[in-house]
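Title: Prediction job returns without error message
Component: structure pipeline
Severity: low
Priority: P3
Assignee: unassigned

Description:
Job completed but the reporter wants confirmation the result is attached to the right record. Sequence as submitted:
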Amino acid sequence: MKGAAYDLLGVTRVYDGRRVLSVRELAVQEGEILAVVGPNGSGKSTLLRLLNFLEPCSAGEITYFGRRIEYPPPLDLRREVTMVFQRPILINGTVRDNLAYPLRLRSLQNRDRVEGLLAQFGLERLASASARKLSVGEYQRVALARALAAFPRVLLLDEPTANLDPYSVALIEGIVQSVRAAGRTTQVLITHNVFQAKRLADRVVMLLEGDVIEAGNTRHFFDDPRDPRTAAFVRGEMVY
């Protein structure tokens, strides 16, 4: 039986005296896709940064697969979690170089894995192309493929399909679903697209002004929300 990938208890994050995130209690279950929704400035990206061990919480406790996280965490834990930023940065070199990079860091054999990712993401014809000359959709696909190259235990996605064409959106969503079906990787997805959250997520969390105001399985979140602010957000209304 699978347990929790993360447990957050009494977690807050404060910047310059201003509280930007407060999570009384939240679990991310192993192998699930958890979508995090909410308006701009609600604390979504801050939550992802804490889950990625990029910064410490100001108070509270984060447990990762039963292991309490002390900051900074050891390298072995950091390498288990990968993140695709809304504006990712690729290394100089070709698309193939970028996919091989995380494998080289871990001294892993990479040829078969890289070729498989090129095919899976529809990037074969771009394998030798400069990563700096890609379209926005191609760039984002390479960033996601690179994040998956070393079989991460957790994949964090910050608006991975923002401003992409429909083909790229469909391809990336298909990859996210296939990763879930494989059952090896827990995924946390930030999205402003409630339809995307409904399509992809097992559970959905809504943040508003740094607070978790609703968390539940996807069907109940959209069809029978407990909080009226959640209901308004799902209807597309302003909840600032």
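Comment from assignee: result matches the submitted record. The longest helix spans residues 166-182.
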